[in-house]
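Page 47, continued from p. 46.
Same chain as before, 236 aa.
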Amino acid sequence: MSDLMWTRFDIRDFRNSDVEKYSVWVYMDGTLPKVYADEQPNTEEVWFKFYKFNHFYWTLFEDECIDNTRRGSFYNNGRIKQFMLGRMLHSTNIDSVVVEYGKDGRLTERSLQSVMSVHPRILRVLMDKVDVLPKPLEKEDERELEKQCSILFGKGEGVTNPHEYVTMYCNLVAFWEKFGMNYFDILNLPQDVFFALKKVMTLESATKTDALAQQQRIERQQQQRNRPRGGGSVRF
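Result:
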């Protein structure tokens, strides 16, 4: 996605306002900090808050952080760290860091330099804790979701103990009417909500297609059974 495409927008308007806090603990040993992922005796907490992803920012993320090669597409860990620090940083308790963004949704040069002046050990331990890649469903969870969608959309029956994706989908459908949201509404959806809805919509479509094909087969079989059989003579 070209930055030029968004020059007439302020990309910050598309940002999710929710944030997530990550902390590391630092002990100063002379001039070099010792940095820990968990709290230790005599350490001080250093925290960073990052904006949570919505679908718009996830689209930017994939555009900037995926390498497409002949062997396939892969997330680039170096660019992931750059994206999180340069586009998603909300605040920190390090006084020397200035967080200010331009209309392009990136930290200003002054702000980025203040972030990069943080000791590399702190940034390394911090970014090891920031895991933004979506976790795939477990195989058993995937099968249960497919089963529930088959019952719900294929047979038109209710399901007991519905999967959280199914619950989310059904609740939104009631007021979203497939879905009553414009393009920018969808871009502002939290990424986990967008992913869940897209997954269920895909399964709904596939299940309805299979159900329609089954119904057509049944109708053809009934027509064949009801078709008059020839071979007898007719008398007047």
